[in-house]
Amino acid sequence: MNARLATLVVVLSLLWMLNAAAEPKAMSPKTYAAIQAAQALMDANLPGQAVEALQGQAASLAEQPYDLAMVLQIQAHAELARDDPNTAAELLERCLNLNTLADKERLALLYTLAQVSMLAQRYDSAARHMSRWLAETPTPKAEAHALLGSAHLQAKRYAQAIEPLRRAIELSDSPLESWYQALLGAYFETKRLDRCTALLRDMIRRFPQRDGYWRQLGQVELARRRYREALVAMDLAYLRGALNAEQDLLTLAQLRLQQGTPYPAAELLEKEIGRGRIHASASRWELTANAWYQAKETTKSMEALRRASKIKGATGSLRIRLAQLYLEARQWDTAQASLDELLSKTTLDDDDRGQAWLLLGIARHGAQSPQEARAAFTQAAKLASSRDQARQWLGYLDNTD
To answer: Which of 98, 202, 293, 343 has the fewest C-beta atoms under 10 angstroms from its C-beta?
Structure first.
């Protein structure tokens, strides 16, 4: 039996004893003896036998509602002891509907019934009983509001969950972390993202050891398109070791890029690819190369693109981009070798093929090989994507011959 069920078993035992003490003369000796016998079976860890004995007793009490109410409560106790909260809730419902308990005992039963209904996942019943209890209780404790909010939340009535959960946190000197989490869920489901931000900041202050709340704050700020605030939160989450999933790490890298800090973005990508937490795919290395390029680290960008180009599935466009970097670095021979290999071994679409021939012509021109350059430009001029630029180069070569 789990801890929560065990607690409720004790609550029900106390509830039954409270009722028995409140009106000792109202219960017949026969019923009292039957309940005592059932309790002995419970104490011997035989709840199944207790249930069987009580079922027979309950069947004979149609004309004795108070006795029946007592039997139903102890029977619910036994059902909880054998981990059957659904049957326990049904028994307590029957007990309540007898309308035989005094107000104080009825209120105690309402509260317990709400708790048992939650265990039985009867969330509508739990909310109904707790709402009724709250309406009749002048100074309810925080836990009662929290239970009502949780019932609404589990029933997906997110808007109705907000006020009781908020009230529970407000009333308590030491509100449970689970109450904050439930309220956060209700705010998020109702798209009250500004409330999510404020609540998460409060949670970070109250539960500083929970580094994951920085990650959640970053995600909420991202959803609000507050990218600078999202970056701050995600950076702190990363520093605290709360970012581990590949998508979270990629999000942080992209935020760094977006906010104009490409060097840290590139460092992050390269580090996490090395650690294996970001998959070493061609697209991930290409993103790393772009970050290094934005950081004006051309050599590191070329190295990242080299890695990308060696991976199966690397696109022709990616290899063309690598050749462009070689040209920017005036590495003519390296660019020629790369483009020769690309054109001879790779299936390219017309756009990429035209671009590759054009770049090869530029590389050959840079290497002082005008005739070979002319041959490459002539091939580029045959394709629509590179025709205009290739003709300009051919015209230039004609004028300089």
So the answer is: 98
Q: What is the pLDDT of residues 165-199, one digit of tens each?
A: 999 999 999 999 999 999 999 999 999 999 999 99
**Cα angle 189, 195, 197; round to 5:** 100
Which two structure tokens, joined as six digits, stand for 398?
């004609």
Give 26's DSSP letter: G
Q: How far apart are the first and last CA of the chain?
A: 94
Q: Which residues contact 62 (CB under 8 A, 6 or more apart)?
A: 68
Instruction: Domains for the chain: give ranges and CATH numbers.
Output: 1-137 (1.25.40.10)
Detail the DSSP E strand segments found in 314-391.
Answer: none
Cα–Cα separations (whole angstroms), residue 125 to 15, 113, 115: 20, 9, 10
Q: Which amino acid is at 287?
A: L
Report pTM.
0.82
How many degrees, rounded to 5, is the angle at CA 351 between CA 348 and CA 356? 70
Q: Classify 102 in phi/psi space as left (phi over 0), alpha (psi -120 to 50) or beta.
A: beta
Those residues whose C-beta lies under 8 Å from the C-beta of residue 155, and which sit 6 or more positions away, are: 123, 124, 127
